[in-house]
Design a protein that fits this description.
This protein folds into 2 domains: about 230 residues, HUPs (Rossmann fold, 3-Layer(aba) Sandwich); about 80 residues, Tyrosyl-Transfer RNA Synthetase (Orthogonal Bundle). About 50% of the residues lie in helices and about 5% in strands. It has 13 helices and 5 strands. The strands form 2 sheets. It has a 3-stranded parallel sheet with strand order 1-2-3. A two-stranded parallel ribbon has the order 4-5. The two termini are about 30 Å apart.
């Protein structure tokens, strides 16, 4: 199937250091699966990173390289997908400014993901004006590519709902689409933007090694894809269930068996572990943790091999980012032109290219 006939998918990551297994199962695994069936654009949201770390620009730049390495390690293929930098695609910033006019400020601040980040990061009232603006920027990231779907973890679904609102409002205000139209009808009825769907993977939220919170590097409960087998075993060993003895009947609705379901591949083995654990059939938490750790390391091994193949070659990474950004510019300039035409903002044609 020609790429131009494929549905478009857009998703990305804010560069905050290396990715971990929570990222892989929350979104990246699904991205890898879509590379042959969709036209894929994967964004490094380096400007969004400035909303809370504007004083750490060099660190953000280095994080961009780390994330590309992790994308490649996890299976993203630059020959089948475009990996690009947000700051190298001008249409995204221009659409952010335009979309900000379509959203009431209090609606942006009601975004539950935004509220959670303010709380988790301890920002209180001490955040930049750009921090709530990034929620609007995420709508531009997606709609600039007229994406049909967005692979996300379940915690990002509220951000996507804001994007869906913007698409509807723009199409109704500037393209004459009825407010009674179904979401899937918007483009057919003349709308510039499709109303995108969330594509949540089978594992929308991977619990961290603390057994309580979502896996997060900032909470020190994450397994990085560069972790050695020894490091994986150590991290898994910290997973707490409260069970005292291998002969105690255990509740399999716990974090330990969340990991069993995710990382043990054999369904018969999963059923056996559940049965023995629930009956207290002389099987300890430590024994299961070791088996899980071995499965995780087996999963990580080919990722680590792919990562080593690119490590230390920043010129190669930059070439991938440049090529991806050029493709992203071509796609988003067409979108921006259509949006400006619809909103009576188009006066001249322009061409953007890198030297």
């Amino acid at each position: 199937m020609a790429a131009k006939n494929r549905p478009v998918v857009l998703t990305g990551d804010t560069p905050t250091g290396q990715l971990h297994l929570g990222h892989y199962f929350g979104s990246v695994k699904r991205r890898v699966e879509m590379q042959d069936s969709h036209e894929c654009y994967f964004l490094l949201a380096n400007m969004h990173a400035f909303t809370t770390r504007a004083d750490k620009s060099e660190e953000i730049r280095n994080d961009c390289f780390d994330i590309v390495l992790d994308h490649l390690a996890m299976g993203i293929d630059p020959d089948r997908s475009s990996i690009f930098l947000q700051t190298e695609v001008p249409a995204i910033s221009e659409l952010t400014y335009l979309f900000a006019m379509l959203l009431p400020f209090n609606r942006v601040l009601r975004n539950p993901t935004l509220k959670d980040e303010i709380k988790v990061k301890g920002l209180g009232d001490n955040y930049s004006f750009g921090f709530p603006l990034y929620a609007v920027g995420q709508t531009a990231d997606i709609l600039a590519f007229r994406a049909h779907s967005v692979p996300v973890g379940e915690d990002q679904v509220p951000h996507l709902e804001l994007t869906r609102e913007v698409a509807r409002r723009f199409n109704q205000m500037y393209c004459g689409v009825s407010d009674q139209a179904e979401d899937h009808e918007h483009v057919e009825l003349g709308g510039v933007f499709p109303v995108p769907l969330a594509d949540v993977g089978k594992i929308g939220r991977l619990v961290g090694t603390d057994g309580v919170n979502k896996m997060s590097k900032s909470l020190n409960n994450a397994i990085l894809i560069t972790d050695t087998p020894k490091q994986v075993r150590k991290k898994m060993g910290k997973l707490y269930t409260g069970r005292q003895s291998p002969t105690d009947p255990g509740d399999t609705d716990n974090a330990l068996f969340h990991y069993v379901d995710v990382f043990i591949e054999d369904p018969d083995r999963i059923a056996e572990l559940r049965d023995r654990y629930s009956r207290g059939d002389n099987i300890g938490d430590g024994e299961i943790k070791v088996e899980i750790a071995e499965s995780i390391s087996k999963l990580l091994e080919p990722m680590q091999e792919r990562r080593r193949a690119y490590e230390g070659d920043r010129d190669r990474i930059l070439a991938i980012l440049k090529e991806g950004s050029e493709k992203a510019i071509a796609s988003t300039e067409a979108t921006l032109n259509a949006a400006k035409e619809a909103a009576n903002l188009h006066f001249f044609d322009r061409t953007i290219r890198y030297s």
